[in-house]
């Protein structure tokens, strides 16, 4: 082989090697493609909106004194799931919390309407009576709570009068949200002032929470 031809082949080989090396170098400098999981990490807009909506509804229920204690816990779980990038779970939890808050608000309006109707009937029938005519005892059964007991027609027929039972039996009831099967409560008679105070407390009391004595309950007992 002639010297000139050998030199030409050497140059071509060197150029080829440089191109290959250059391509490899360029490829190494390019960032790795982002995976779907990485792209979806953190809260999505939909998850944020669902959580925000649930918080607004919970605040309304709390203002009415009808919030369910575990609704707030569900919202916290939704926030945790969203922060971890599990937006589907976050949205499900937030939507469930919204539904519960809606149910609590609906319950408030339903009970308020029933109370107004009951009070109207009582006032029209007993306008000149200073005291109500309830009395006796009630034995707690499984599943009972003060709200449901007070609502029974054989008791007061009005769930908002439950504080009357609580106050009359405070020696047995340490937490108004927690009573036990087998307890025997006295069902006191009460005058219009006592009924009004009981209803006012029931409507403005803090959220129901088992295991904690509501501060406003203590204030009511002190009246």
Overall form: elongated
Mean pLDDT: 74
**Adjacency order of strands in the biggest sheet:** 1-2
Radius of gyration: 34 Å
Explain what this protein looks like in three dimensions.
With 223 residues, the protein is mostly helical. It has two domains: 44-123; 129-221, LysM domain (Membrane-bound Lytic Murein Transglycosylase D, Chain A, Roll). It has nine helices and two strands. Strands 1-2 form a two-stranded antiparallel ribbon. Helix 3 (45-64) runs parallel beside helix 5 (87-125).
Summarize the structure.
With 223 residues, this protein is mostly helical. It has 2 domains: 80 residues; 93 residues, LysM domain (Membrane-bound Lytic Murein Transglycosylase D, Chain A), CATH 3.10.350.10.
Summary tags:
223 residues, mainly alpha, Membrane-bound Lytic Murein Transglycosylase D, Chain A, 2 domains, two-stranded antiparallel ribbon, 9 helices, 62% helix, disordered N terminus
Compile the SSE list and pairings:
Elements: H1 3-29, H2 36-39, H3 45-64, H4 69-83, H5 87-125, E1 137-139, H6 146-151, H7 162-168, E2 184-186, H8 192-204, H9 215-221
Antiparallel strand pairs: 1-2
């Amino acid at each position: 082989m002639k010297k000139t031809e050998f030199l030409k082949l050497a140059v071509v080989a060197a150029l080829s090697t440089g191109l290959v090396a250059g391509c490899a170098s360029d490829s190494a400098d390019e960032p790795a493609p982002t995976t779907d999981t990485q792209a979806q990490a953190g809260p999505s807009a939909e998850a944020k909106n669902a959580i925000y909506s649930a918080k607004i509804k919970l605040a309304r229920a709390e203002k009415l004194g009808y919030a369910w204690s575990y609704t707030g816990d569900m919202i916290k779980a939704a926030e945790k799931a969203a922060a971890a990038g599990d937006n589907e779970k976050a949205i499900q939890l937030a939507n469930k919390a919204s539904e519960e808050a809606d149910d609590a608000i609906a319950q408030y309006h339903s009970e308020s309407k029933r109370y107004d109707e009951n009070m109207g009937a009582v006032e029209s029938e007993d306008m000149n009576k200073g005291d109500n005519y309830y009395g006796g005892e009630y034995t707690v059964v499984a599943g009972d709570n003060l709200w449901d007991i007070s609502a029974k027609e054989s008791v007061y027929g009005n769930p908002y009068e439950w504080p009357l039972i609580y106050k009359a039996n405070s020696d047995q009831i340490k937490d108004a949200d927690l009573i036990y099967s087998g307890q025997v409560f006295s069902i006191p008679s009460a005058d219009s002032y006592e009924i009004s105070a009981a209803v006012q407390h029931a409507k403005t009391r803090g959220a129901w929470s088992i295991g904690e004595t509501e501060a406003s309950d203590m204030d009511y007992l002190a009246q």
